[in-house]
Amino acid sequence: MKICKNCGSVYENGALCPECGSVLRDMSADEEKAYSKRLGRTVSEQSSRSYGLYSTLSDRVLGSVSLFCMALHGLCLLFAAKAPHSENVSAYSAAGIVLCFIAAVVFLAPKLLWAVSSIRLRLMTDEPDPQPSALWVTVKNFMKYGLFALGMMFLLLSLIEIL
Question: Would you give the DSSP letter of residue 129?
């Protein structure tokens, strides 16, 4: 491999850089190892993002909101005694805590969710490093938004019962 000393572009062969016209020089073994390692990391990050194993900014925001709603459900449990139907508030809040916790995990730690899910695949197949399918990513996305919506619904029901 050859590298341009002027702009840093890397090419398989050639004498002159197509970008800036400078003379290309051969890469040293250390430079080639560093380039391959950097390229491998970039490919790995891109494939993780494309397979849904990457938390976007909106996922991190909704995961944080889910954790905040867990705290609100805890407060609803504390004020449940003042509600006329305290057993309903307790049930709504307990279900809401569980749903918001699971939603937060799915939003904030998709790689952890895949690690747990892939254990089953490793046990059932001989695949040492299974990759998530498009169906798995789609189901995960429906699940995280559905759990978030149900957690919010139970929070609203708890607040309505308290007030």
Answer: S
